[in-house]
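Newbie here. two chains, one complex. Structure please?
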Amino acid sequence: MANTVTDKNTSTKSQNEKLFISDIRKKVTFSIVEAYKNIRTNTLALMTKKNAKVLAISSPNASEGKSTTALNIAITLSQLEKKILIIDADAHRPSIHKKLKVENNFGLLNLILDKTNLNEALYHHNDYLDVLTCGTNTTKPSEILNSEKFNELLEELKSQYEYIILDTPPINPVSDALVIAQKVDAIVLVVRAGTTSHEAFKKAIKSLGVLELKADGVIINGADPRPKGYYKSKYSYYRYGKTYY
Amino acid sequence: MNSITSRDLFNIFLKNIFIILLSAIIFSVGAYVYCENFTDKKFMAQGEILVTNGNIGDKDDSEDEIIDDSTESTPESTPETTVPNSGPVNNTDIAASINLLPTVRSMLTGSGIYKEFANYLNTETEYNYSYSQLKAAAKVDQTEKQSFYIGISFELGSREDAIAITNHFLEFVPSYFEGKIHGSRVSTTPDCDTAVQTAPRTMSTVALAAIVGVVLSYGVVFLISILNSTIKSDEDFSARYNIPVIGNIPDFSISHSNSKPTSKKGKRG
């Protein structure tokens, strides 16, 4: 049974959909909007520079905000009217479907195992953003993601989308992220200020280094938004704006 | 571990200044409450005793006045003096008086005088202090080494008692010394009417407590800061790693507190 979605925006959101998804709050401030737009700009520059189409968003440990960040990056990219696909590749703790409040009956894992087809598995969030949830499978996700079928699927999807964002598992606890990292064009790590230790980050970098991979960028989550220096006094965007939604 | 500069120390202080100030206030208030409610107050009243040999009269206003053999002295007598001057004073008398000082001081720091003083108080006054209490309360001082004056003070639990006991002692002392050292003359300073609080030293204790609060709290935040091995900010990250930071996502809780209406000076873009 396909996800209960249609081509149109099927979430409970209104026509003026919420731009950002947050686990914590429903309202989003201007500062966060600008932060993600900044990330979008830098991500596009990074992808263009590397001629990359597939971007993996990971983190050293769990609960550092990579899923939310990945989804928000995908949403902001789609606002540029670019065809974006976000894939939930975290088989251990899939969460994209929860954030979007859609079902997860069929997704990536089912697709790789030929238990469904692409049309059934894809969820069209809006005209420019499609979502491929993780799907359900209780057997060995690492082996499934390491299969040639996944490579073929990615190649097929590359032809259909301008950019593909993968929400991967954390690097340190499980090996899936390293498997996925070898199949993508660029890797961005999300770290949480005040939570992610330098030791954990170094361990993640080292793990990537063993495979001759490297992180192409880092996003600091939960940073202190108070501006410093020149911008603090006059042109501080953080002083502006009501709640965005 | 990266080396810590003085700027880092100052930044830690600034970042946690409210906690540090709050600690100082809490310590100060605690010290004040302790001083006011949990410590016994003590007050000290002071007087002076002048003991000379019999040929020297009472002290007049000039403490440095030394009268030689050729000069007749008639010091002014005041209502408080005990013995009027009875003749010329010579250096021998002065030397004799100075020689009395160690003896007098010894008697003032001994036990006998306070035993008799305790009896005096019990029989002649309404105050009832034991010999040991009086001896513990008494402090003997000498303002100048070559001065005839010996300071005596009593430190007791109430201002009124300190003043009263000191005054009674100043009344008692002349007869005591003149009875023990025949031919001596004893005079005292006028009645003492003030007593200063000697304990607790509230202001200095509160100030010290504030300093302790600042130091302790700064020590704690400093330890927490240097033991905190997490990534704190993009500056912290960029200082250690050669990986570009492509974005900072603000803390939701902080960014919500900063969410305010548009400034009056500008319009929203």
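Moderator note: The longest strand of chain B covers residues 42-53. Residues 202-227 of chain B form the longest helix (26 residues). Thread marked as resolved.
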